[in-house]
Amino acid sequence: MYLVSYDISDNRRRRKISKELENYGTRVQYSVFECNISEKKYMELYSKLLDLMIEDECGNIRIYDLCGACKKKIVTIGIFDGKGDIDDEEVMVI
Prior knowledge:
Layout: E1 2-7, H1 11-22, E2 26-29, E3 32-35, H2 39-53, E4 60-65, H3 68-71, E5 75-77, E6 90-92
Parallel strand pairs: 5-6
Antiparallel strand pairs: 1-3, 1-4, 2-3
Helix pairs in contact: 1-2
C-alpha cells in the first residue's frame, strides 16, 4: 500500500492530481490518499503524477510505501466514514 499526500497551491493542477489519485486509491483526508495497488500500478501512477508536476515550482507530492507489517499497524482515531479499507486496520472510535 502507498500513502500519497500533496501540497499544491495551483487549483487547476491540484484538481488534476486529486482526480488522478481517485483512480488509484481512497481519499482518507483532503490531500491524502491510501492506494492499495500493485507495483505495476504504482509505476503507472508515479509516471502520471510526475507528468502533472513537471513544471510546478512550489508544490510537492509525497509518497510513502507501506509494507504489509506497517499497514497492519495503522490506527485511526476518530470517526471512520466507511469509505476506506479497514480489513487490516485497527479503528478506534471516540
